[in-house]
Amino acid sequence: xxxxxxxxxxxxxxxxxxxxxxxxxxxxVPADALRAVxxxxxxxxxxxxxxxxxxxxxxxxxxxxxxxxxxxSLGPLPCRGIPRGVRLDVPDYPVLARDVVRHVGDAxxxxxxxxxxxxxxxxxxxxxxxxxxxxxVDAVAALGDEAPVVWDGRAGNLVxxxxxxxxxxxxAAFATAARTVALKLVNQRLVANYMDTRAVTAAFDAAxxxxxxxxxxxxxHAVRDVLARKVLRIPPERLRVVxxxxxxxxxxxxxxxxxxxxxxxxxxxxxxxxxxxxxRSDHFVGDSHGRDxxxxxxxxxxxxxxxxxxxxxxxxxMGAYLSCYAPYIPFAGAGMLPGVYAIPxxxxxxxxxxTNTVPVDAYRGAGRxxxxxxxxxxxxxxxxxxxxxxxxxxxxxxxxxxxMPYTTATGKTYDSGAFAVHMARAQEIADWSGFPHxxxxxxxxxxxxxxxxxxxxxxxxxxGPETATLRLDRDGTVTVLIGSQSTGQGHHTAYAQIxxxxxxxxxxxxHIVQGDTDRIxxxxxxxxxxxxxxxxxxxxxxxxxxxxxxxxxAADLLETATADIEIADGMVRITGTDRAAxxxxxxxxxxxxxxxxxxxxxxxxxxxxxxxxxxxAEVEIDPDTGRVxxxxxxxxxxxxxxxxxxxxxxxxxxxxxxxxxxxLLERTVYDAESGQLLTASLQDYALPRAGDxxxxxxxxxxxxxxxxxxxxxxxxxxxxxxxxxAVINAVVDALWRSHRISDIDMPATxxxxxxxxxxxxxxxTM
Length: 766
Fold this sequence. Notes:
By secondary structure, the chain is of the alpha+beta class. Among the domains are: 14-21 and 462-603, Aldehyde oxidase/xanthine dehydrogenase, molybdopterin binding domain (Aldehyde Oxidoreductase, domain 4, 2-Layer Sandwich), CATH 3.30.365; 411-458 and 610-766, Aldehyde Oxidoreductase, domain 4 (2-Layer Sandwich), CATH 3.30.365.10. Helices cover 30% and strands 24% of the residues. Helix 14 packs parallel to helix 15 (531-558). 54% of the residues are buried.
């Protein structure tokens, strides 16, 4: 099938995007819309009183100024991600702070005017009496007895404690182990930095009392339902959410933000369309951040180097408020800590901490990159301390294919996987055995060379249910309505390929409709790499149904039996003859009930899928500057089934770029003394650029998933999960070979690598 599944079809979306014809929220702001800005706190923690609003309200062009007192009827932003079995006292996350701000960037007022500049002028004219309070911006420090308390009335900053696995069995295994290794890791805080910043345009229809919000999201239905029921406190039917093109989501556009409710209120009160578009500064201090864990991990081994037990202690920064899924993220990651290894017993303790920082929430991988980083760094540490090859130690302890399905010590059941196979293939591509020669050559040129592996597994594809509705239109095209949301993945092409598999239509004759709660009845949205494992399965089922309808219609029109009809090249014909009909002729045939031309299929995943793979990085370090260059990068992934090789490779490249960015460049820095975000712009926060990326070599080594009808496992986050540990393992390998330096935290910036080398020199000259 030319355009069907497994074909390298180029993205139909790209023509518009490459010509600058994408339609993002900011492109759709009506010319007569009022514009809004948010006044944000300059303090990490302070009591405040708004002393004067009169001057601001009297400024030219100002139409409305909202403070907490003006929106008392609104509910707080909800926290939905509370792990099962955890008792959690969730403090209010207010749409606008009332008396106390708890992080730099906390929202204090919403100003609406004719223009953005007028709204900014008015916001700056608001007189506020600030009374700064003590603050804490580090999660480990926040759990100390003397730490300032983020929330009055609480005994401290501990949000919750959760444990997984078997403590007694794990302690017993450590007590009898022949060898134990330990490692303390920092998984630093990140800022998502998607291409188009968040924005919302709100319109109110006085005739029916409905509000329409046009906003960038990863699923219009989830945003609508939470915003309507929990925050605006109106029936969901009164709220329409429309999502146009979205330039990146990465988890951080899954849920409602303050500005959406504020724009809705302003539009209804003014009877005018109101638009708010974040600038990059708003993004840094107003959108949820990612990661931010400090982890101590220990591994117990027997005298044959077999893994016996894993013990992990995690301190996870929640920020000042509990964002939508924040408490669940560490739990989701902790379940994946055993990785691809047969570890009989495991115990994990998770402690969440409040700090005076921007709230943390889901970010590409949402806990699974953190877990892979812990176990893959720990296995390399064990190999180094045991003086065995890191690949050999992995191979010895991998879960073997005959053991599938395999239930880990944290309760995850892997249905399939051949971990040693994809690791061996990655080593073959990279010429692993030839590395010593390359390292010696680099040494002669004054460079330090290292090689590192990460063999990862993740859990995804479990979000749902998702319903796909397919309609045969009168012009012979097919329309797909589905509640998932593309944020750059290429859904319009991928879903069209699934339709083509059963109906033979080229991509241009398949129209995908997403992101409109009025046109699409339900939707799970896009998160956790579920679009194809869930939404794709629904499209596949609906396509099969529509193919049967087409055959039945063709049999009636051509006066033959359904069994004699075949579909090929977007036509239907009687097999073995030239008697045929177009889809348009079938749709327009007299007597055809229009309802018959629409079919639907719902798929609800019962379990997660488990993509896995090997990332292999080879690096070269300039010891005079500390600069790390990735000279080789190989990825071999098991994604179950490849729907489109081009789309898959693009997803993997993008994810790996984000993982490499974390490994070598990105770091969110708060000043402990002032509480200020020091990396609050792209002048201070280092994102990876094209020149920082290697030439990726990518292959698949697929083992079809047996718990998913398509056999697909998901791939949207896979690249991010394997990249950071592979790169840091390579960096540490280079440092260990040359200077016996056994650890370095992310990001391995030139400054940090240079400092570690200089400190090592100092210690050896004392």
